[in-house]
Amino acid sequence: MTTKELPDELIELRAQLKCSFEQIDAVFEDCIRDAQRRLSEQGVKNYLSSASLICMIGRGVEPVLQFLEVIPEMADRVGEEVISLISQGVWEASRTPNGVSIPPFMATLGEASRRLGSLELIKQYLDMLFDMMERTTGSIHGHHTTLPSPGLPHLLQQMPYLLSQVSIEGLQNWIDYGIRNYNDHPERQIDYFTLESADSRAMLQRERHGTLFADNERNLGLYLQALWQDKEYLAPYSTAKDENRLQQPYYDKVGIRIPDVFDDSDNGIKGIDRYRAMLAHMAAHRRWSTKIVADNYSPFQRIAIECLEDSRVEYLATLEYPGLHKLWLALHPAPDEEECTKTDASCIRHRLAMLSYAIKNPQHGYKNKDLLEFVQRFHDLMLTGESSAQEVAKIAVSYIARTRRQEDQAATIYFENTEVEYRDDNRHLWVFIEEGDEEEQFETPEDKEFEEVNSLPPRHYPEWDYNTKTYRPDWVSLYEGLHPSGNASEIDGILAKHSALSKRLMQVLDLLKPQNFVRVRYQEEGSELDLDVAIRSLIDFKSGATPDPRINMSHKHDSRDIAVTLLIDLSASVNEVPEGCDQSILDISREAVSLLAWAIDRLGDPLSIAGFFSNTRHDVRYLHLKGFSERWNDEVKARLAKMEAGFSTRMGAAIRHAGHFLSNQKADKKLLLILTDGEPADIDVNDDKLLIKDAYKAVSELDQKGIYSHCISLDPKADEYVSDIFGNNYTVIDNIERLPERLPQLFLSLTK
Amino acid sequence: MSEVDIEQYRINDEPFYHLQEDEINEYQAAYNARLPVMVKGPTGCGKSRFIEHMAWKLDRPLITVACNEDMTASDLVGRYLLDANGTRWVDGPLTVAARIGAICYLDEIVEARQDTTVVIHPLTDHRRELPLDKKGETVHAHKDFQLVISYNPGYQSLMKELKQSTKQRFVAMDFDYAPTKVEEGIVEKEANIDADTAKKLVQIGKVARNLKGHGLDEGISTRLLVYAASLINQGIKPANACRMALVRPITDDADIRQTLDHAIDTIFV
Q1: Which chain A residue has the Cα nearest residue B219?
Q2: How far apart are CA B187 and CA B199, in angstroms?
Q3: How far apart are CA A462 and CA A429, in angstroms?
Q4: pLDDT of res. A436
Q5: Highest mean pLDDT, choosing among A401-415, A696-710, B76-90
Q6: End-to-end CA distance of chain A
Q7: Spatial distance between the Cα atoms of A410 and A348, rounded to a whole number of angstroms
Q8: Could you tell me the sign of the dihedral formed by the alpha carbons of A132, A136, A139, A143, in that order?
Q9: What percent of chain A has pLDDT over 90?
Q10: Which of A276, A321, A546 sits opposite B82 (nearest CB)?
Q11: Contacts B74 to A, Cβ<8 Å
Q12: Which residues in chain B are contacts of A226 at CB distance < 8 A?
């Protein structure tokens, strides 16, 4: 519409909007009428002058159009102050290199006002964005800002999704983390704010509200085991992918898939109970449903069968656990009988939802005669016994035939109030004999990823950042595996070479075998008299009281209960041959480790040996040389013989991983010995202290779990850093040639 | 010999016991041959009740000893006591039983130290005699004497074990929680409660027993179910009675407590 066609009263207003783009004319009437309806007179003036301001920033017509469209509703909801707030903000942003972020910013306003709902929170939102913008806008010389923020446009694009997942505080935390860690790395910053990187997703998960699967995995497993005796593997799927398509839970040979997070429902059902409702439904299928051949049924017949089979297993489950009725009913949609007739979409889902609801709730209030008849038929069938999928299939097919309508063939299907969140997609119910089109609807790209488990997936460990005093979650990827094997007889040769040493060791070992004596007092009969107690007893007797007859003491064997893990640094530096030696550090270490393992085997302590090295944080390798359950046998010797070194030393992750296995051992005392030749370092870390501090943190974590860590360093300069990590718990071996002798001795002295 | 009041050990009223299989006949046969008997099973499933019942049925006095780690051989056999006049020998429960021909029931025998347990060996083989070393007397057991021990083979067996030389002196009878219908009947009768509530309580018991090994050392015993029923009889709401008697005593693990609480809410609506 051109200005000529505007009604008179609006022409003046249009003139107040100092912006001559044609596109504005087209929408002006609708926008201004909306503004007039919602805003005061002053508000409308404000509205127009602010829009003019936005026009002046020279970013084209798009921001102005967005402003005109979204502001009336926003101001109506949170107050008219927001009008100038937004336009001022936009003006300021336009003075920075971040002009390109203005259109995406305007696009977030609608969602933000809906989610945040108050002026306070909108202010907070704007402050947060401006703060982010300032901190990430780069400058070359440090004075003038010249480079736009890499992450801001992407952050704004993700904003609708982010606002739906976390509160504003959570969002602030998440943004802070991204800025702190990626401010000097534009590409990684973009990865973070587009939610591409693993740690950005992990951080978001931490801030999310609702009941997380990750926090409740054990609880849900116990539920399944206790009430249903079902031990199935549970795995979450992300509800982030697509908010439009509601992914349904399902189960197959691999396990049961349920959402990764559940908020409390609007009618007060807690997240954990929504999970339980879902698991109960699937457990009921697993107990009572059998497969049906799909080929003979049309798609409509199939969804009807699924609906009735769902109802049947829920009925049976409710007989056993009556409380489930209330829970499922609260989560089941309650469609209105007439709501679908007002549309020209297919009502088939609506009819089935009503049938399902009516079966559950006797007070459904529906009047349709066919519906009532089939509800009765269902209940009559269930009174005869457990029935079966095949039996309800007959009822389902009848129902479809009876209530068939022309509109069922319509292109669109009415979905409102027909989706039952806790019911699975029933893929387990059907068996297809012939290749058809239908079965492909169950294959989503996600399935393929889930099923391809050839190699062991990496374990993720956090890393401690001493700058921010926080952990970076899921920062390090650790791959573990069995060390390749070589020739076991090499190790036998080593032991033979050190036969003198091993003879001496054997003497010490025999003394150390579980023979420690511990005194046991207050015995009626024992090996010697406990003089103190005997005297006291006699005094009692003399004074007329009954003396205590337990005046002897004896000795008891105290057993050894120590589990040890030996962690060997396999970084490239151990391949060197130190001055004055004719063997590499690796070879000498191999000898020492062989002797130690032999000694520990004689003592009978559980021992595990592993080597580690790293190649950036994405690839830390942990290679098992000996497991706790293995004896000192040829297989272990063969792996030791083949021990090889390369790459770098990312110690923290290896310590944590070793601690994970050690803490599962049932022993009173747990010892972690780390054999290293240098400080923790890796090629993707420039800061020397970062990995040292991280290793220190890892050692304290283990200490809290009751694991004592001791470092054996072959670096003559170790004193500079090793006490930072291990405190007093380290031994520096200056003369490397003496390692085979010192290592077992050290072990024995630690474990006396 | 010291004076002992035999009557305190007699059982006058029939203790309620619900027969499960053929245990009454089996025990009867063992008693007729005066064979020592070992009853094995989880806690609270009816072992002690069964022995009481059999003692009543056979009209024998029953002397029960709860075994613990501090128990010494003289706690079982007897000791000299000091009083103002000098020393006085007092028989221990095992000796009393051997003298008067009672059934001596050593409950949770694995708790006692092994050097204490071996004191019963001479009574359990063909000799049927108990030497009292300190007194210089050898007691020949009364012809009606029988020794019974109980043993819970669950978590304790990791740390404490009966020696083979002890185990092989006994015939053993296995006890377990009764089948569902029977257990419902037991709870009904013991606690004097209606059948529907008994059924629901037993159902909760089963739910917890499914978690044995997954975080619970032992499932819920029949005894606790009876306790819960008693609380309900006193007017406590069923869900609360269940929490008090069935959940809070057996675990402090938050996840398990939540799971059991939820189970109670789905069963007692």
Answers
A1: A226
A2: 9
A3: 42
A4: 59
A5: A696-710
A6: 94
A7: 10
A8: positive
A9: 24
A10: A546
A11: 524
A12: 207-208, 210-211, 259-260, 263
The SS3 of residue A333 is: coil
Instruction: Say whether B263 and A226 touch across the interface (CB within 8 A).
Output: yes
Q: Is the dihedral of CA A15, A20, A25, A30 positive or negative?
A: negative
pLDDT tens, A630-651? 888 888 999 999 888 889 999 9
What is the assigned CATH class of domain B6-174? alpha beta
CA–CA separation, A220 vs B214, rounded Å?
12
pLDDT tens digits along B6-65? 888 888 888 888 888 888 999 999 999 999 999 998 888 889 999 999 999 999 999 999
Locate the chain B residue with the closest alpha carbon to A522: B70
For A141, phi and psi rounded to 5 degrees?
A: -100, 0
Domain boundary assignment for chain B? 6-174, 180-267
How far apart are the CA of A752 and the nearest CA of chain B, in angstroms?
24
Chain A residues touching residue B79 (CB < 8 angstroms): 549
Kindly report each contact of residues A260-267 with a partner whose C-beta sits within 8 Å and lies 24 or more positions away, as own/partner.
Answer: A260/A205, A260/A212, A260/A213, A260/A214, A260/A236, A261/A205, A261/A208, A261/A210, A261/A211, A261/A212, A261/A213, A262/A210, A262/A211, A263/A209, A263/A210, A263/A211, A264/A210, A264/A211, A265/A330, A265/A331, A267/A330
Distance CA A482, CA B265 (A): 48
Q: CA-nearest residue of chain A to B205?
A: A226
Q: In terms of C-beta distances under 8 Å and separation of at least 24 residues, what long-range contacts does A457-466 make, across chains too?
A: A459/A657, A460/A198, A461/A652, A461/A653, A461/A656, A461/A657, A463/A617, A463/A652, A463/A653, A463/A694, A464/A652, A464/A693, A464/A694, A464/A697, A464/A698, A465/A181, A465/A690, A465/A694, A466/A689, A466/A690, A466/A693, A466/A694
Pick from A226, A276, A544: which is nearest to B210 by CB? A226
Please tell me what DSSP assigns to residue B216: B
Residue B143 scores a pLDDT above 50: yes
Beta strands in chain B (DSSP E): 37-40, 62-66, 78-83, 86-91, 103-107, 129-132, 137-140, 146-151, 171-174
By C-alpha distance, the chain B residue nearest A320 is: B267
* ipTM exceeding 0.85, yes/no: no
Domains of chain A: 3-207 (no CATH), 212-450 (no CATH), 488-510+561-750 (3.40.50.410), 517-558 (no CATH)
What's the CA gap between A637 and A489, in Å, rounded? 8
The whole-angstrom distance between A323's CA and the closest CA on chain B is 4
Any idea which residue has 């007039």 for tokens?
Answer: A36
Number of CB atoms found within 10 A of residue B61's CB:
20
The helix/strand count (H/E) of chain A reads as 28, 18
Measuring CA to CA, how many Å separate B223 from each of A134, B187, B219?
Answer: 69, 9, 11
Verify whether the Cβ–Cβ distance A321 to B214 is below 8 Å. Answer: no
What is the number of CB-based contacts under 8 A between chain A and chain B?
57
